[in-house]
Automatic annotation (TrEMBL):
<dbReference type="InterPro" id="IPR004797">
    <property type="entry name" value="Competence_ComEC/Rec2"/>
</dbReference>
<feature type="transmembrane region" description="Helical">
    <location>
        <begin position="170"/>
        <end position="203"/>
    </location>
</feature>
<dbReference type="InterPro" id="IPR004477">
    <property type="entry name" value="ComEC_N"/>
</dbReference>
<dbReference type="InterPro" id="IPR052159">
    <property type="entry name" value="Competence_DNA_uptake"/>
</dbReference>
<keyword id="KW-0812">Transmembrane</keyword>
<keyword id="KW-0472">Membrane</keyword>
<feature type="transmembrane region" description="Helical">
    <location>
        <begin position="84"/>
        <end position="107"/>
    </location>
</feature>
<dbReference type="InterPro" id="IPR036866">
    <property type="entry name" value="RibonucZ/Hydroxyglut_hydro"/>
</dbReference>
<feature type="transmembrane region" description="Helical">
    <location>
        <begin position="146"/>
        <end position="164"/>
    </location>
</feature>
<feature type="transmembrane region" description="Helical">
    <location>
        <begin position="315"/>
        <end position="338"/>
    </location>
</feature>
<dbReference type="Pfam" id="PF03772">
    <property type="entry name" value="Competence"/>
</dbReference>
<feature type="transmembrane region" description="Helical">
    <location>
        <begin position="350"/>
        <end position="369"/>
    </location>
</feature>
<dbReference type="InterPro" id="IPR001279">
    <property type="entry name" value="Metallo-B-lactamas"/>
</dbReference>
<keyword id="KW-1003">Cell membrane</keyword>
<dbReference type="Pfam" id="PF00753">
    <property type="entry name" value="Lactamase_B"/>
</dbReference>
<feature type="domain" description="Metallo-beta-lactamase">
    <location>
        <begin position="386"/>
        <end position="564"/>
    </location>
</feature>
<keyword id="KW-1133">Transmembrane helix</keyword>
Length: 632
């Protein structure tokens, strides 16, 4: 599925080098040979399941997030502290620093030596400890980056060679991309390298000159000021990056990170690692030493309390539309450049050009107080697999026709596609929800959408829903004429689909649901106008629909097929597509194009597809390999 605002699963699969998915139909277990990490996960998971914060502990120790619930993940995102749970540079640095400090202290105290032997031993042990912890974490992108930088720092220290932190960061970037060029497709890659870049920049403009500070109090004060400078820059920079990657930003990440980062660095992570080593050592003697793990679980209680109260905090998660995010990023870039361009008469032309970057955000703020109404409206045919979901957008308000399918208790296209799309487009209110008929691929997400927009007026003939029926009538919405054309009476099955025609003074759109030949013939005999520039093909392009007489009556310039890629029905049928092509009617299919958007601007019509226009990147291409099977 490829839609604006939605999760790009294909991009994630490509970044993980997954080229296909399958399922085991029949098998017999012959041998079990787990890796050390998997063996540790299997042994430790039952123990941690019994602890209140066992989900966070398992993620901290072994990088396994299987115990983290959906609600906990939501809280981690809302607080902007998810990086504390995902093993990254902070965790490796803390482990390496504690190993180095404790070992060097012990060696210097009990076996002192005038040479660099103790330092060398401490550095080697810290490097081995960091590498082993990175292995336990699964060698994620952020872990790779941190490990390369730590090992390089230790190696250069042993060789007495100087290198700047920026050089080590660039070398880590080179190594990560050399080992896995597709790593740049993951969000963790950008978050990790940008975070460290912000930290290094802060340390560069605010150097720690402790040698010139005489008192301990002044040193502590300087360190706290530097910590504050790093945290607010991280919150701002990564907040914008998070908004670009995930469509929202946490407004409480700054103060929560100020509290949580030192606690994790000096208490939670050291206790967790010590508890893990004690437990692992105990298993070698057939014992279960969980004392320190219980203590580390207790140390995470304050952090868990923060996660629990985060949903009750005001503005705990601010969703940003694509346009709003573009305005903010434009102003942010302008502000950063303005900071560094000299303010004198020789740079006035540059300063004048930079001022243009602030115009979008100014215009956006003006529209908040004085909304602009235009004749422009858009129809978005969303990619919901083998199903149908259409969003009509005008003046920031929405009209939804069908909701796609739902499978089981935890999957709904309304939740995965429609709601994120509405947020990404900045559609704050949905005025109408039309459910054409009761098939799952059209009505599966109705309940979720109705719960999300309780003020929306529901139009459907499906029993059990509290709304208006689909009897023929005209509705005025945002200056558009919405005509309900069929059915004349409640009718079960595909032919009972609500048929809706939407038009302005220049162009029109026909939404047909799953009607078949019988309803098409009835519409041809009716007094209603069917002619429309854009047609969403009846019944996904089935042979039971799209008769030649119906196509001639509608006379569309563009026909859209809401059909999933490689669906088991073979929609749209080649013979149906050929009927439209014989009349020189342009045709597009969601399964191959992703989301299809048609923008109506008076007599002009602009067509945009996700793969071709909205995100025409190589990793969004339709990769045709392997056997075509039903992807659902």
């Amino acid at each position: 599925m490829l839609n604006q605002g939605g999760y790009n699963e294909q991009k994630q699969f490509v970044s993980q080098h997954l080229v296909g998915r399958g399922r085991v139909v029949d098998a017999q277990l012959l041998e079990v040979s787990p890796s050390l990490r998997n063996d540790l996960i299997s042994s430790l998971t039952p123990e941690l399941t019994l602890l209140p914060q066992g989900d966070i502990l398992l993620a901290l120790l072994l990088g396994d997030k299987q115990l983290i619930s959906k609600e906990r993940w939501q809280a981690l995102r809302q607080t902007g502290t998810g990086h504390l749970v995902a093993i990254s540079g902070l965790h490796l640095s803390v482990v390496a620093a504690w190993i180095y400090t404790c070992l060097l202290f012990g060696l210097s105290r009990f076996v002192p030596h005038q040479s660099r032997r103790n330092i060398t031993l401490a550095l080697v042990a810290a490097g081995i400890g960091a590498a082993f912890y990175a292995y336990l974490a699964g060698f994620g992108v952020s872990t790779q980056r941190a490990l390369v930088m730590i090992l390089l720092l230790m190696l250069l220290s042993l060789l007495k060679r100087f290198s700047t932190a920026w050089e080590r960061l660039l070398f880590a970037l080179f190594m990560v991309l050399l080992l896995d060029p597709l790593a740049c497709l993951s969000a963790g890659f950008w978050l990790s390298f940008c975070a460290l870049g912000i930290i290094l920049y802060t340390l560069e403009i605010q150097p720690r000159e402790f040698s010139s500070i005489s008192t301990r109090r002044m040193r502590i004060s300087t360190g706290l000021m530097q910590f504050w400078a790093i945290q607010w820059r991280l919150s701002l920079g990564l907040g914008l990056l998070q908004a670009a990657l995930f469509g929202g930003v946490s407004l409480h990440s700054l103060w929560m990170n100020i509290l949580a980062v030192p606690w994790f660095s000096f208490v939670a992570i050291p206790l967790a690692m010590a508890g893990f080593m004690c437990w692992w050592l105990g298993t070698a003697f057939g014992l279960s030493w969980l004392g320190l793990l219980h203590l580390s679980d207790w140390s995470l209680s304050p952090y868990a309390w923060l996660l629990d109260i985060s949903p009750q905090l005001p503005a705990h998660w601010l969703t940003l539309s694509d346009s709003t995010l573009a305005f903010i990023l434009s102003a942010f870039i302008g502000g950063v450049l303005w900071r560094y361009v000299p303010k004198n008469k020789y740079y006035l032309p540059w300063l004048s050009m930079l001022s243009l970057l602030f115009i979008p955000i100014i215009l956006f703020c003006m529209t908040l107080y004085s909304p602009v109404h235009t004749n422009r409206w858009a129809m978005h045919l969303l990619d919901v697999g083998q199903g149908l979901a259409v969003v009509i957008e005008k003046n920031g308000r929405g009209f939804v026709y069908d909701t796609g399918a739902a499978f089981g208790d935890d999957f709904s296209y309304a939740e995965r596609v429609i709601l994120p799309f509405l947020k990404a487009k900045g559609i704050q209110a949905v005025d109408y929800i039309v459910i054409s008929h009761g098939d799952n691929d059209h009505a599966g997400g109705a309940a979720i959408l109705i719960d999300a927009y309780p003020a929306a007026l529901l139009i459907t003939d499906i029993a059990g829903f509290n709304g208006q029926n689909c009897r023929p009538r005209h509705i005025q919405w945002q200056g558009l004429s919405v005509s309900l054309l069929s059915p004349q009476q409640v009718q079960a099955g595909n032919n009972g689909s609500c048929v809706v025609r939407i038009n302005d003074d220049w162009q029109s759109l026909l939404l047909t649901g799953d009607i078949e030949k019988q309803t098409e013939a009835a519409l041809l005999k009716s007094e209603y106008t069917l002619q429309s520039e854009v047609l969403v093909a009846p019944h996904h392009g089935s042979k039971t629909s799209s008769t030649e007489a119906f196509i001639n009556a509608v006379a569309p310039k563009l026909v859209l097929f809401p059909a999933g890629f490689a669906n088991r029905y073979g929609f749209p049928k080649p013979i149906v597509v050929e009927r439209y092509q014989q009349r020189d009617i342009m045709n597009l299919t969601t399964g191959t194009e992703g989301q299809i958007s048609v923008i109506f601007q008076q007599s002009e019509r602009e067509i945009k597809t996700y793969r071709g226009d909205l995100a025409p990147f190589w990793y969004n291409a339709l990769f045709r390999f392997g056997d075509f099977i039903n992807p659902e």
